[in-house]
Amino acid sequence: MRLKAETLDYWRAPDPAPLRHAQSWLDQPGHQLILDADPRYPARLRDLNDAPPALFYLGDPDLFNVPQLAMVGSRNPTPAGLRHARQFAQHLAGQGLGITSGLALGVDAAAHQGALEAQGMTLAITGTGLDRVYPASNQALAERIRDHGLIISEFPPGTPARRDHFPRRNRLIAALSLGTLVIEAALRSGSLITARLAGELGREVFAMPGSVDNPLARGCHRLIRQGAKLVETADDILEELGPLLDNVSKVPSSSPREAPPDVHDKDYQHLLKHLDNAPRSIDELVEHTGLAVDAVSSMLLILELRGDVAMAPGGGYQKCRP
C-alpha cells in the first residue's frame, strides 16, 4: 500500500503535543492501550482492511472477544423504540451475549442500559478520545459502562467529536459483532451505514419492523426488503445466531456486576415529585431537589428508559405517567 505524502511526513516528524497528551492519559490508573500484535486484540476486527493498529480502552479487556450483538438506531426514538431496545438488550445480555453500541442518545443508550440492568456485558465504541464523553449527557452512563463493561476508541485522547469520526466508529461496531440489530432508523440514518458494513463483512443483519406511519420504521423496512432478518422477539436473534453461540458463557469476567437501580428509592421518588407536564431542565431539577448534577442525570436516564419521563421537544424533562 502506498502511503500519502502527509502520512509519511507525520511519521518522520510527529507532532509531540498529541503524543504527550496520550501518554499523560495512559499514565492514569485504568487507562489502557492494546496493539494489534497483542493476542487479546479483537480477532473480528482483523476482517477489516483498515483495522486500527491500536485501541485505547477503559474497563474489562476480557470482553474484547466475547460473542456480541450490535444494537443501533435513532437518537430520537419513540417511547416504544426505547422500550424495545432496553428489553431486547436485557434479554440477550441475560443469555450471555455482549451488547455493543455507540454510546449515542436514544437506542444506543437504551441498549447499554438494558445490558447493565441484566448484569450482563456491554461494550461502547466511541467517536472521540476517551478523555471525553459525547454526548456529555451520557457521562453517568459512560462511567457505569467503564466500571462494568468496556469502552473502546481508536482515536487518541484529546480527539473531539467530528462528523467523519462516526462512520469510522460504526465500522468497528459492525466488525466486532456477530450481527447488527437496527431498531427505528430513518432512511438517512447512520444506523443503516452500520448495517451495510455488517453485511459487507458477512455478519448477520436484523431489523425490527414498525408502523407504516412511523418515519423511523422506514429505514428498517428498507433493510428487510434488502434481505435483513425480520425480528419480532429477542429469541428470533438467538435462534439465528444459535450455531455461533454454543460456547457462550454467562459472564466471562470475575469482576462484580452492579444490581439494577431501584426506582422506588427515596431519591428517585423525590425527583419525580418535582416533575410534571411542564418541561424542567436538569439545572432546575438540581436546584429544586438538592441532588447532585450527576445523580440527577443518571436517574433521568433510568426513568426515561422506563417510560416514566420523556425529553420535551424544546429541551428539559417532563413526567409521562401520573
From TrEMBL:
Pfam families: DNA_processg_A, WHD_DprA. Residues 256-315 form the DprA winged helix domain. GO terms for biological process: DNA-mediated transformation. Residues 33-241 form the Smf/DprA SLOG domain. InterPro entries: DprA (IPR003488), DprA_WH (IPR041614), DrpA_SLOG (IPR057666), WH-like_DNA-bd_sf (IPR036388). Gene3D superfamilies: 3.40.50.450, Winged helix-like DNA-binding domain superfamily/Winged helix DNA-binding domain (1.10.10.10). It comes from the Bacteria. Belongs to the DprA/Smf family. NCBIfam families: dprA. This is DNA protecting protein DprA.
